[in-house]
């Protein structure tokens, strides 16, 4: 290294160590070991402009090992992304811009919220897929307006987590050559040497997935790191996997190479010893020489020049291809919610019994013509989930223009990839699987909620209506699981109008992910069903009395059952209100006046009907109410048999209503 390069690399190390030490909390090991990789990549190879962090054609960088956040914050500070020295000094403190793990939308320059190991790997694959599709859609000869790389850095833990294998297997299959994975191989985890639990040949695994594999033996060798990155870029048919052999905690004599360097402050004396070992010119915390700032400023200026060149290219492109500019604006603009709300053709339906999964398929195919950037698919279940878009092709290694995604049987990676596609920008992403397998999607849905990502997940086969497949495939507790997730709309429609409402909410949402929970079995179209479903809960059939005798609250396939029970109760002069509650999350966002109008507090005789557990319904039925729900797992039999077996019958709902009167 030249002196300025040495100083610039060590500035990252020193700032990261000082951040962790001042907070008395954090993970210094990765930053100390990976600082040369970070400096070489960000300074010499990555296309980015700190003055415009959202530049559309920037390279993306994801720190999958999010515990190493102090390194990322040091980079953002040194390159001039707006993080001040005071921000670094407030690392891991309440309200700071430097939280313990990187948070998208909170800190400028952070491309994804990471922390759960391996999640960043999956999201990086999604970003690379988005880049490939947008490039195929927009690029013209001599006008590569979409042309950037996705870099992701992670360590042994990321490679142990199954999500990385799921995601990289698909990335290799798709030949995503703009994806470059950097593996911080220090062979240390929290419990000690990785040899106690992880002895596989990672490079051979990645080679089997279809990656080009490159190894850098010395993680301090900037020239070797740079050569590896350029070698990765040169491969035009495969994604690349660069193993960099690093030493955790490098530069701290008492800690380097040890597990204790991973997740605890180095200690005041060890920070002092590290600065002496590195030849750092000052022991003052957070000190950085001016020549280092000048170097980073010069490197950042190169990024600004790259964007200026792209801006000129894009202006010429727009002038030559105005129809492409109009399409670009559609892809990167907002959905016209009002136009969709008033689109009669979108909301039209036939008056016949249809499964809501099939109705959802109809909506997807209506939307794909209205939203040219709708991009998604299923975890090997498109024929069952009804998520295939007609006449738009399949996204594959041979055709990145296709809009149908085939994720394979990889629900966890699918959801991370969908997150990555949405994070990239320009596309409306969705995934799909059976509702019972939402368990496999949950960790990445949680990240979507944290990041305010309006992704859509289609969950079909939503209840004991799955029937013959039995309890392993019959979701009962999944409603409660996903309703408990903050900033997540779980929407279970009862018919065509409500299904259209669910999709409308999904594609017009700006900050909240949506889960659409859909039936396998056919359901009737319901009188009284309306766009009021957009409020999450509404009166689908009211009492003729000023004050109803009771209220039945139902969701999805059980709404028609509730309406049948209402008719039966009327024969005995019991006049009830039926409330359809497709989305509790949305209902809770309505005004107190609206909620009181739908569910008056004075009416305490209430029954909730849903083919899932009763968890959560107590809030709506109260101490005096009752539920018709599941109280255990399902069984294997035809759906009609199971609904009867578990009490989802008109007689039982009628009996339950009477019991609360």
SSE blueprint:
Blueprint: H1 3-23, H2 29-45, E1 60-63, H3 69-78, H4 85-89, H5 119-138, E2 150-155, H6 156-160, H7 162-174, E3 179-185, E4 188-189, E5 192-193, H8 202-209, E6 212-216, H9 222-234, E7 240-245, H10 268-278, H11 290-320, H12 322-332, H13 337-341, H14 344-347, E8 354-355, H15 356-370, E9 374-378, H16 382-385, E10 404-406, H17 411-424, E11 428-434, H18 438-450, E12 456-460, H19 478-483, E13 489-491, H20 496-508, E14 514-517, E15 522-523, E16 538-541, E17 550-554, H21 558-570, E18 576-580, H22 584-588, H23 592-598, E19 606-613, H24 618-621, E20 626-630, H25 639-645, H26 650-660
Parallel strand pairs: 1-2, 2-3, 3-7, 6-7, 9-10, 9-11, 11-12, 12-14, 13-14, 17-18, 17-19, 19-20
Antiparallel strand pairs: 4-5, 8-15, 16-18
Please explain how this structure is put together:
This protein is an alpha/beta fold and 661 residues long. The chain is 43% helix and 14% strand. It contains 26 helices and 20 strands. Thiamine diphosphate binds at residues 67, 115-117, 157, 186, 262, 437. GO terms for molecular function: metal ion binding; transketolase activity. It holds the Pfam family Transketolase_C_1. Its cofactor is Mg(2+); Ca(2+); Mn(2+); Co(2+).
């Amino acid at each position: 290294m030249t002196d300025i390069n040495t100083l610039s690399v060590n500035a990252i190390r020193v700032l990261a160590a000082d951040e962790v030490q001042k907070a008395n909390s954090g993970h210094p090991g990765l930053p100390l070991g990976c600082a040369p990789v970070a400096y070489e990549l960000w300074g010499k190879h990555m296309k980015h402009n700190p003055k415009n962090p959202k530049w559309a054609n920037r390279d993306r960088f994801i720190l999958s090992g999010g515990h190493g956040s102090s390194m990322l914050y040091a980079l953002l500070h040194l390159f001039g992304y707006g993080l001040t020295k005071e921000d670094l000094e407030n690392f891991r403190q309440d309200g700071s811009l430097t939280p313990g793990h990187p948070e998208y939308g909170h800190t400028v320059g952070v491309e994804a919220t990471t922390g759960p190991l391996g999640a960043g790997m999956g999201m990086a694959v999604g970003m690379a897929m988005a880049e490939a599709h947008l490039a195929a859609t927009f690029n013209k000869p001599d006008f590569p307006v979409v042309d950037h790389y996705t870099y992701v850095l992670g360590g042994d833990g990321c490679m142990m987590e199954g999500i990385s294998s799921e995601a990289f297997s698909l990335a290799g299959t798709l030949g995503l050559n703009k994806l470059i994975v950097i593996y911080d191989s220090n062979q240390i985890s929290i419990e000690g040497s990785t040899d106690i639990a992880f002895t596989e040949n990672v490079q051979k695994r990645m080679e089997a997935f279809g990656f080009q594999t490159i190894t850098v033996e010395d993680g301090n060798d900037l020239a070797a790191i740079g050569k590896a990155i350029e070698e990765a870029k040169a491969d035009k048919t495969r994604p690349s996997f660069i193993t960099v052999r690093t030493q955790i905690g490098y530069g701290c004599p008492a800690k380097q190479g040890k597990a204790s360097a991973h997740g605890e402050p180095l200690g005041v004396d060890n920070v002092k010893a590290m600065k002496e070992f590195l030849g750092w010119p000052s022991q003052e915390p957070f000190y950085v020489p001016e020549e280092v700032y000048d170097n980073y400023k010069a490197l950042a200026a190169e990024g600004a020049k790259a964007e200026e060149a792209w801006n000129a290219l894009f202006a010429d492109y727009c002038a030559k291809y105005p129809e492409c500019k109009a399409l670009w604006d559609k892809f990167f603009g907002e959905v016209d919610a009002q136009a969709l709300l008033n689109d009669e053709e979108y909301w039209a339906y036939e008056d016949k019994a249809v499964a809501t999964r099939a109705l959802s398929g109809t909506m997807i195919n209506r939307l794909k013509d209205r939203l040219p950037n709708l991009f998604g698919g299923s975890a090997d279940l498109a024929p069952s989930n009804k998520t295939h878009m007609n006449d738009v092709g399949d996204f594959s290694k041979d055709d990145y223009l296709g809009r149908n995604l085939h994720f394979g049987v990889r629900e966890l990676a699918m959801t991370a990839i969908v997150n990555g596609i949405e994070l990239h920008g320009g596309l409306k992403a969705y995934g799909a699987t059976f509702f019972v397998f939402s368990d496999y999607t949950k960790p990445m849905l949680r990240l979507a909620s944290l990041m305010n990502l309006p992704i859509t997940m289609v969950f079909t086969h939503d209840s004991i209506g799955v029937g013959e497949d039995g309890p392993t495939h019959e979701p009962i507790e999944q409603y409660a699981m996903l309703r408990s997730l903050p900033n997540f709309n779980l929407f279970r429609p009862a018919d065509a109008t409500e299904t259209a409402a669910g999709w409308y909410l999904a594609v017009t949402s700006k900050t909240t992910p949506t889960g659409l929970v859909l039936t396998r079995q056919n359901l009737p179209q319901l009188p009284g069903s309306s766009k009021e479903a957009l409020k999450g809960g509404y009166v689908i059939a009211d009492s003729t009395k000023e004050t109803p005798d009771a209220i039945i609250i139902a969701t999805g396939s059980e709404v028609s059952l509730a309406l049948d029970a209402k008719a039966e109760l009327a024969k005995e002069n019991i006049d009830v209100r039926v409330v359809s509650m497709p989305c509790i999350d949305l209902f809770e966002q309505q005004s107190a006046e609206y909620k009181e109008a739908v569910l008056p507090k004075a009416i305490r005789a209430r029954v909730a009907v849903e083919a899932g557990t009763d968890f959560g319904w107590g809030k709506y039925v109260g101490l005096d109410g009752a539920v018709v729900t599941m109280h255990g797992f399902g069984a294997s039999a035809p759906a009609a048999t199971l609904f009867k077996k578990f009490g989802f019958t008109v007689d039982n709902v009628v009996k339950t209503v009477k019991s609360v009167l």
